[in-house]
Amino acid sequence: MHLPPEPHGQLKSARFPQPVEDTLERIRRAAELAGDDWLQVLGLTEKQYLRLLIERVPLAARTVESVAARFGLSFESVMRGDVDYAALSAREKGDHDPLPARFSVGAFSRRRTSIHLLDYVELNHGWRTRSRILRHFQMSEALFKDPDQSININFVTELCEYLSKSGCSTDVMKSMGEHSFVANRKTPLGRLLRSYGTSRMLHEHVFTELISPYFDKNCIYQLVEISDHHCVVTARPSTEVQDELMQKVIGSTHVCSAKVGSFQSLSGYLGLPFSKVTETDCVHSGAGVCRFHFDFQGRAGLSRPGPHLASA
Ligand SMILES: [Zn+2]
User: Fold this and answer.
1) Where are the alpha helices (DSSP H) in the chain?
2) CB proximity list for 143: less than 8 A, separation 6 or greater
3) Which CATH number fits domain 20-80: 1.10.260, 3.30.2440, 1.10.8, 1.20.1270?
């Protein structure tokens, strides 16, 4: 992937340790403050601020305290970089930040997929890359605070397209999809998915009840086959979504790859290795439906372990 490198070095797969100056800059961007407004928050004159930037004089604790107090954060959380930027941005905007019109028509997706894709980008490429992507789409952090709010599928489609043009391979798209497990496992949805005793029960419930309310109403999903170690799911674009968006093509091959990753991660909620999911037909290659074949371990301890399982 060839996204521009972060100023502090190479891409890493672990969270970046952030110097406090970096955290303050991110807070400034999330709050969309500039000029005198920002100086006021810092409690600095323009001259002092310029010295800070140009001569790199160390930040005074009272400057950090001033920022923390203004945004209702603790001094320690700012020092640690432990800040919920989406919540901060939403508070600054009074929770009235509108979704750009092109993503609000036919909004049949929950924002949780968008959130976990953006989180993946941040985790692997740093918050500045995430910030640059949000600016590219003219969207703020505040829009990604609540996973249950709606957005149309074109945002995820365009985001995947953007990342693909930046060099993301199909495997990276799948890894991005798998990140949904990291993003969701500690949420009420994650707890619900953990409550099923076997992979069969989990996949049955996901593809007959949960996928529409929790993930995606852009496609009509059908569980066409299931056993203790295998299932087949088809997805065809919803005509309602096609009509609302006034477009026949819903999603893209990249979105389907991310979907494969997300599907693979389902068995992770049961503490099992991720499944092996293969998309054998795709509407973006001319098929009538996308067809996904799942191979999974039935229950912990009953089958041989491994990151990917052979067909049952
Ligand atoms: Zn497909």
Assistant:
1) 20-31, 35-42, 46-50, 61-70, 75-80, 85-92, 101-104, 112-125, 127-136, 153-165, 170-184, 188-194, 199-205, 239-245, 253-264
2) 97, 99, 111, 149, 151
3) 1.10.260
Residue 92 alpha carbon to ligand 1 centre in Å = 39
Ranges of residues in the chain whose predicted pLDDT is under 70: 1-18, 95-96, 300-312
Q: Is 150 helix (H, G, I), strand (E, B) or coil?
A: strand
For ligand 1, the distance from its centroid to the CA atom of residue 251, given in whole angstroms, is 8
Distance 108 CA to ligand 1 centre (A): 18
CA of 263 to the centre of ligand 1 (A): 13
> What gap in Å lies between CA 137 and CA 155, rounded to an integer?
9
Q: Which residues surround ligand 1, an ion (CB under 5 A)?
A: 256, 282, 290
Residue 250 DSSP code: -
Tell me how far the alpha carbon of residue 174 lies from the centroid of ligand 1, in angstroms.
13
Extents of the domains making up the chain: 1-18+81-312, 20-80
Ligand 1 center from residue 33 Cα (angstroms)? 42
- Give me ligand 1 centre to Cα 187, in Å: 27
CA of 200 to the centre of ligand 1 (A): 23
Calculate how far, in angstroms, residue 279's C-alpha sits from the geometric centre of ligand 1: 7
1-18+81-312, what's its fold?
A: H-NOX domain (3.90.1520)
- Ligand 1 centroid distance, CA of 281 (Å): 7
| pLDDT tens-place string over residues 25-65 | 999 998 989 889 999 999 999 998 888 888 878 888 999 99
108 and 156 Cβ atoms separated by less than 8 Å: no
Q: Please give the model's pTM, rounded to 2 decimal places.
A: 0.74
User: Is it true that 1-18+81-312 and 20-80 share their CATH fold?
Assistant: no
